[in-house]
Structure formats: C-alpha cells, structure tokens
Amino acid sequence: MDATAWLGLEPTHNPMRWVLPVTPGISTGHQFLFGGCGLGAAIAALEGSSGRPVIWATAQYLSYANPPSIMDIDVTIAVEGRQVTQARAVGHVGNREILTVNAALGERPMDVEGQWAERPDVPPPDQCGPRMPRFPGAESIMDRLDTRLASALDFTQLPGPGMPGGRSALWARIPDVLEMSAATLAILGDYVPFGIGQALGERAGGNSLDNTLRVGRLVPTEWVLLDIRVHAVRNGFGHGDVHLWADDGTLLATASQSTIVRFWQED
User: Are the beta carbons of 50 and 87 closer than 8 angstroms?
Assistant: First the structure.
C-alpha cells in the first residue's frame, strides 16, 4: 500500500481535484484531521496532478476538518518549467478553507551530492519501549502508527526535567505503508508538538500553524527516526524542526513547524 491509499485520497474526473474522506484513522484523538495527513494528502495530490516529485511543500493550517466530512483538494499549477513546477493545493470542506499548501516539484539529475547533518546515536527500534497512546481506547491515527521512545520521556515521567537541549527522538513506522514517499514523510514529520512537551518537561503539545517538508533522498526503510529539535518557546508559541532519518543513516527529509503551545488537562 502507498500513502495515497493509506490516507484514502481519491482522484476525480477532474485531474486538478482530489477528495479526502476525513476518517478517525487520519485524525487526532480530539477528532480533527491530523496536520501531517493533511499535508501528506496535498503532496500526493500535487504529485499526481503535476507528474513530478515534491522538492519542498509548506502547509498553512487555517481551520479544522472533523470526521465524517469530505475535504476537497484543488490543485493549481502556477508555473511549469522544463525541470521545476511551482504549484499550490487548497483543501476545503464546502466553502471553509482548511489548509493551503505551496510547493515546488521536479528533479535535476546531478552527479554531485552530499549529506552533512548528523544522526543522533540511539538504540535500534527493537530495543526501545513503545510510546503509549495519550487517549487509550479512542480511535485515531495513533492506532495505525508504531512509535518507540528512542530518546524521549514517557507520559508517566511528565511533568519533570525536560529533555537536554530541547532534543528528543522517536522511531516511527506505518506498518501498512510499504513505499517511502514525500507524502509518507509528511505524515511522520508532524512531531514538533510532541517535542515541545519533551523540551518543557510538561504534559504539553500544541496545534500546528504550519508545516514545511524539504525532501532529501528517498530510500527504502521500515523505520524512520524522528530527530526532534525544539528551538524556542515564547509568547505562547513554539518553534522547531524534525530530521527524518532512514535506518541506514540516510537523511530522508526535514520538517519544520510553528505551533500554538497548549497544556493537557489531567482528564
């Protein structure tokens, strides 16, 4: 299964319009569309309409989409060059805009390449404990993800001292998705809110205002290491990024976000 099928994204007779049924399986425990799934669906639509792979894509989140609504995704090709396409996708439920995604797509084969970021040294997935669900018994996207605490605090350790340097790490995989893609990485890259609670040492997270995915090199991998780096929390907002690593050390992509910081209620 690829990410398009996993999300439930469907084409229409119009090659520039796609539809995404918003189900609990792509929603948060609070029952609204998970931001990474929204960006992932927009990326899949952009790639499907343009016929080119995403280089970068950035989402601005404007409103919530709740199950069982249907989100239409309309793609506009703004500029189509020999090697690069500039495009945008707008996701809306009826007349209510949910997210806007701007992106560049294309590829330029070149012999020169390099990777300079360094992956953190953490135990392999089979030596890391599972991340327990925050909403036990609630149907959500977390039922379809497998996440392991590589260098992170469990819920039971919060509140407490935050992670040193504002840095934490999770191993993650989507068991039903066999193909690595930009859309898959968009789903997995939406973890700065998790990192904010880890950095603060509080039962906290947030709602994403945006999410930008920059694609490095796609290689087959079962597990993806989410290397989460929170840079600052101020004035009620948090900022950070996620480096997404293949299990062989390849940098697959980076994701960056700003979020509204929120603290969880005890119940």
Answer: yes
